[in-house]
Amino acid sequence: MLLARDHPDDDARRRLRDGEWRRLRPGAYVVADTLPTDPFELGTQLALAHAVAVSRQHRPGVLSHTTAALMWGLPLPGDPGPTHVIRPTTVSGSHADDVVRHLVRLAPDEVTTVAGMPVTTLARTAVDCAATLPAGHGLVVVDAARRSGVTAEALQRALAGRPGTRGIRRARAVVEHADDGAESPGESSTRAALIGLGLPRPETQVLVRTAAGDMWADLGWRGWRLLVEYDGRSKYEDGGVDALLKEKRRQDLVESAGWRVLRVTAADLRDRRLLVRRLRAVLPADVAATLRPVGPFAR
């Protein structure tokens, strides 16, 4: 990330005109040929560079919410959006459309540094995201924070520091259902969808004993002998046909051990009616009849 104030005016204008630099925001640029071509990676890198620019141009301030999540390396479903900054008071002349400012007084133990930038702690970041994102998206972030080492107790302390604030009820529900056993954003999103349809909270990383040894499934309910596996594209991209055959062999062994398996994809998560139809085919009849949207994860 480059700041115009560190370069002669003519040099900055020339490099921008010639396409050597890409503009992030007024007075801040990034070298164009260092940017990735993959759209998702590009969006993430630009959002990170934008956050660094805001932090360097507008001190004091603490990077927060989804911006802090990016700084911590947490997954974010969808567009990262604008840069979020927490300040204890307003700063004269600091308004900018590409920055969301939160007037909050943080406790000293809620602030740390990442890559030299002031950032909310991992627990505070997770709770802020849980309070402001849709519940399913928030669960992706909080699950990832749990995998990164944040304890349930730390999340509860962060919640206790936000009594009565907007989104706190949703944040409590997300934190209550967070699980460090979710190994990918797809698994977190699948669990959120299942809970949002009124199903009991599924167990993560379910141990299945098969004739070929112990295996683990993404989600499931032991009492129903039902497993749910999230199938993302990345599972098969590198392995090709071999990966497909291996997964087929694995499912055959699991089913031979007396389990049923429902494979869920991103298409199922985008179409809840399709997911409901598929679930009704494998759930006990009395449970299938009760499926309906309920609670914050239903939206």
Can you give me a brief rundown of this structure?
The chain is α+β, with helices and mostly antiparallel strands and 299 residues long. The chain has 13 helices and twelve strands. α4 packs antiparallel against α5.
Keywords for this structure?
alpha+beta, Endonuclease, Chain A, 13 helices, 12 strands, three-stranded antiparallel beta sheet, 19% strand, 2 domains, 299 residues, four-stranded mixed beta sheet
Tell me what you see in this structure.
It is a single chain. The protein has 299 residues and is of the alpha+beta class. α3 crosses α4. It has 2 domains: 36-180, no CATH class; 200-298, Endonuclease, Chain A (3-Layer(aba) Sandwich). The strands form 4 sheets. A 4-stranded mixed sheet has the order 9-10-11-12. It is globular and about 70 Å long. The chain has 13 helices and 12 strands. The protein has helices spanning 9-17, 39-57, 65-72, 122-132, 135-147, 152-160, 168-177, 185-196, 234-237, 240-256, 266-270, 272-280, 285-288; strands spanning 2-3, 21-25, 28-31, 62-63, 83-87, 99-103, 111-114, 117-120, 203-210, 213-221, 226-230, 260-264. 35% of the residues are buried.
Question: How do the strands line up in the largest sheet?
Answer: 9-10-11-12
Distance between the termini: 37 Å
Described by the principal axes of the CA atoms, the overall outline is: globular
The portion of residues forming beta strands comes to 15-25%
Total domain units: 2
User: Oligomeric status of the shown chains?
Assistant: single chain
Strand element count: 12
Secondary structure class reads alpha+beta
Largest sheet: 4 strands, mixed
How many helices does DSSP assign?
13
InterPro entries: Restrct_endonuc-II-like
Organism: Cellulomonas carbonis T26
Protein name: DUF559 domain-containing protein
